[in-house]
Amino acid sequence: MTITRRDFLRGAGAFVGMYTLADAWHSARASTPMTMPARTSAAMLAPPKVPLINPTSLARFVDALPIPSVAHAESQRTHPAYPGRKLSYHRMEMRECKISLHRDIPGTRLWGYNGQFPGPTIEARRGEPLLVEWINALPSKHFLPIDHSLHGAEHDKPEVRAITHVHGARVSAKNDGFPEDWYTPGHSTLYHYPNGQDAATLWYHDHAMGITRLNIYAGLFGAYIVRDDEEQALNLPSGDCDIPLMLCDRLVAQDGQLYYPVSDDPAAPWVMQCNGNLVLCNGKVFPYFDVEPRRYRFRLINTANTRFFDLSLSHDQPLQQIASDQGLLPVPLQRARIELYPAERADVVIDFSAFAGKAVQLRHQAEGILEFRVRDHGRRDSSTLPAALRGVPRIDPQSAVQNRILTLNETDDANGNAMTMLLDGKRWSDPVTEKPRQNSIETWSFVNLTGDAHPIHLHLVRFQILDRRPFDLFAWNAQRKLLFTGPAQPPEPQELGWKDTVRADPGMVTRIAMRFEGEPGRYVWHCHLLEHEDNEMMRPFDLLPAHS
Ligand code: C2O
Ligand code: CU
Ligand code: CU
């Protein structure tokens, strides 16, 4: 049996150390014909040129978990979009920085908002608009391998470009961070965020055309938290017991520097997936966090390029999930495990009251990635975990004015190795085909023709998952006919809240419903596996004005 690169990449669930990466390279090589004309075959993964850190060699839980600082408003300003109001004005400067990922790892070059990794947390309140000036103060050369054969990253484009998007924000097109609206070092853009939406854990990150995967990998992301009175009235854990926890992974070399995988074709270094050897919690490898024997709220955000997280606690301790991407669930859910695909969020409450003097670990699969050390400092816990959180009225799919069928495709080479992933068989530059009307309800069905799960994200709107249903791939390929082979599966309980990113499983039709509220304009939808997004698995959509 030959192991293809795909098998390797697909199986890459656990830590990938230097040895497995090299092994995969050798087996990928072994299955490649001697000569291949350029671009008719998928490039193979090249071996790393530098020795990577073996995660088993690292001391566990020797660094404190970093809590990103809260972004403070520099001043109060007026803005023409909100006449007569004074708004908080924030400056966020993207710049190069050197960060310690672990006590025993030499300082790592990163790009961070305000020189921090993750960037400062932006705190917003529902109904209180705010201003952010996003400043590109990055160096003029990129330190990660740009693929100039990708659309939008050609040789005539500047190497370093940036544009920030707040993931999950209901914001006008001009302030949403359209991928082609990037700008170069020395420039900035002033965005305004109305925050006219329910309390939720959002996050901001770079979105520059063709290099998003590299810019986010370099460190350009942070949390954006929307709060509201209704949620506050629930008396959930708050203040220093309400913590954003951003999870990602990176390939880190023994000299402490980031390694981003490349193919064996120097003219086209893009690879379809990037899994790291180290998992980072708020930018630290294997940190610890001192907690008190009480309830905490953690806002889990998967900020990884490719990796999904399979999270659980030691001691068979359950997690109480209270929110998903776009805010509170109807009721708290007791969960033994929580799976998060890239860009998905889950807010959880963990009760440490039975663990005074002990340690509890947060695990990804079997591996402890963060240790909670429980010490009693005599502070009383007055928070609660109510039995009901917030109603999520179901959207009736019958009220949809459009039911779109959209495929997730992959073009393979002769060996079955993926070269490009597409949405509905179209490229980014093809004419816009999704043109929903403002305030109308639509259902979108993602017909996954590939062998992998893809987290699909829509800008601007929040949606509900209707169902997932197995279909006959052969019938589709033969006659473009959608033939179901089993009953529709309802969403899982934790998927009954508002979402902005949905896992579209292979062999399934994943159906979502949404009302297109927001300002008319051009937005995007895409796969949130960043390597896919950068290589054509992203499409614009136009929100058309409502009929008057
Ligand atoms: Cu998380 Cu298009 O974004
Ligand atoms: Cu987004
Ligand atoms: Cu994808």
Description:
- There is one protein chain.
- The chain has helices at residues 5-11, 18-30, 212-217, 229-232, 473-479, 530-534, and strands at residues 63-64, 75-77, 87-99, 108-113, 119-125, 130-136, 164-167, 187-193, 200-206, 221-227, 242-252, 258-259, 278-281, 284-285, 287-291, 295-302, 309-313, 319-324, 327-335, 338-340, 345-351, 359-364, 367-374, 402-412, 418-423, 441-448, 454-458, 463-470, 501-504, 508-515, 521-527, 538-543.
- The strands form 6 sheets. Strands 11, 12, 13, 14, 16, 18, 19 and 21 form an 8-stranded mixed beta sheet that branches. A 6-stranded mixed beta sheet has the order 1-15-23-22-17-20, with no helix packed on it. Strands 2, 3, 4, 6 and 8 form a 5-stranded mixed beta sheet that branches.
- Helix content is 8%, strand content 37%.
- It is mainly beta and 548 residues long.
- The longest helix is centred in the N-terminal third of the chain and has 13 residues, at 18-30.
- The structure holds CU-O-CU linkage and copper (II) ion (2 copies).
- One copper (II) ion binds at residues 165, 167, 457, 459.
In short:
The protein is mainly β and 548 residues long. Helices cover 8% and strands 37% of the residues. The chain has helices spanning 5-11, 18-30, 212-217, 229-232, 473-479, 530-534; strands at 63-64, 75-77, 87-99, 108-113, 119-125, 130-136, 164-167, 187-193, 200-206, 221-227, 242-252, 258-259, 278-281, 284-285, 287-291, 295-302, 309-313, 319-324, 327-335, 338-340, 345-351, 359-364, 367-374, 402-412, 418-423, 441-448, 454-458, 463-470, 501-504, 508-515, 521-527, 538-543.
